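Need tokens for this chain, all 171 residues.
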Amino acid sequence: MTSKNDKYFIEEALKQAKIAANSGDIPVGCIVVYRENKKNKKMCEIADTAGLKDGTVLARAYNKRNKDKNAISHAEILAISKACKKIKDFRLEECTMYVTLEPCQMCAGAIVQSRIKRLVIGAKSIKAGSCGSIINILDNNEFNHKVEVTYLENEDCKEILKDFFKKIRMK
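Here are the structure tokens for all 171 residues:
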């Protein structure tokens, strides 16, 4: 189910992807947004303490694998880490992650482990997609947490990747 804010927030993630591209990394951007749920008392207490309101961006990140020379410096991992620090808990139960490219198996696992409620994806990844394209780690009955996934199929998210790899092939 697409919300009216999904397009806005995927555009915010796209801004992060552009930073990655400009720094020579694969252009993937990610943001984590707090979504208020009055039924989740623990998360409401955390939100009140941190001064969070519905729609607050907890974290922004972009791929830094090349920059950091680190295999786990993916946008999703970095965003999860920042969001957890901000709310002082590993559980991001009332959060939505917006990412420009479908997460790989490592990032999909981190999304499950952090208990993110919803994931909005700008473009599918036919080579490493682990949220439905190749495998679906987020909807596995064996895990104790499932993530709601929405694909936006945003043309700008696809184009930034095509342009990036086209420039690499030309070199």
